[in-house]
Amino acid sequence: MKIYFPIGAFYPSQIGGPCNTLFWHTCALKSHGIDANITTTSLGIKDGTIEYDKVLEKQCGSIFYGSTLSISQAVAKQIFTGIRSADVVHLNSLFNVLSIISFFYIKNFSPKKKIIWSIRGELSPNALKFSRAKKKPLLFLYKKMTKNILFHSTSEKETQEIKSVFGDVKIVEIPNFIEPSKRREDTIKKQFLYLGRIHRIKAIHKMIEGFSKSKRFMDSDFKLIIVGKHEERHSDYYQELLELIKTEGLYDKIEWRGHLIGDEKEKAYAESYALILPSETENFGNVVVESLNQGTPVLASKGTPWSVLEQYQCGFHISNTPQDIADTIDVMIDLPQNIYDKMRENATLLVDKEFNVNTQIDKWINIYKNENSK
Q1: Is pLDDT at 17 greater than 90 in this prediction?
Q2: Helix and strand counts by DSSP (H, E) for the chain
Q3: CA-CA distance, 65 to 67, in Å (whole number)?
Q4: 3 state DSSP class of 177
Q5: Tens of pLDDT along 309-348?
Q6: Which residues contact 72 (CB under 8 A, 6 or more apart)?
Q7: 149: β partners
């Protein structure tokens, strides 16, 4: 059985969570005898790390990296070939050009081909505010052609977002799975961690205001570590954050680390007291699972689908108002050591039971086989 994945960016690129999620996903598929065929671009790839414009056999399957940042003649050719030979096509964006071309090619030349479409948070109201002129006409066309499509959501919240746009369509709800990194035993420092994009939708400004309002934080040796980079198009927001830090007198309490990957990223998770994800909206949030895998509790906003943190008692699911963030930081800092240690145990338990790709990939294999048999 062959599953085809046209995707705008793919591991080792780190342009968004799906780069890693789909790498782990396809590696697990291959280990279970399912052929994965991937076509992608050079977006987010460091020079000299990848051979371009040729099919490479990797642990994740057959993969073709185009030499340009977006669509090219070579990539388009691979897309058409990949679609024709696939049993199921798995798309991972509504608005990336590779997905757009793949979708309309299927509808015009292979209308019976089965499509699974992972939405990746692109239908949240906050996400739809950006580039509306591009998205609105595409959604209008998509809504007229939903036959043979199984939509994939990662949470109940995203399921409702899909229904609000596409109506009564077929949806399967499965969270993202990860290949757990080796668990580290670093000394836990007095630091909270934010790790992710520097983008307004992440509500980093509310997080900073929250820390400034936390008396326990301001009177302690704790710091806030911000890991991530901003794209040039979001430089105004980055400058706004720097000004906010200055206004709130937080220069000595906040440290910028830039973009971290690999062992450096895992170390940042493992040595932090807690991760905070204050986003206005997330369809999932891979950083939560990655943090929990290192035993680090998480404070996640109610714009994220992480109520399970409180169910497993390994974090907090809170409003992302600055005051609620401040109140929760105060609670975290004041936790008795035995309660905090138990939260860390519960964090790894949650990952092992529900988010390990090696134990959960059968859920996806069953879906692919079921779709192919229809």
Answers
A1: no
A2: 15, 14
A3: 6
A4: coil
A5: 999 999 999 999 999 999 999 999 999 999 999 999 999 9
A6: 41, 66
A7: 115
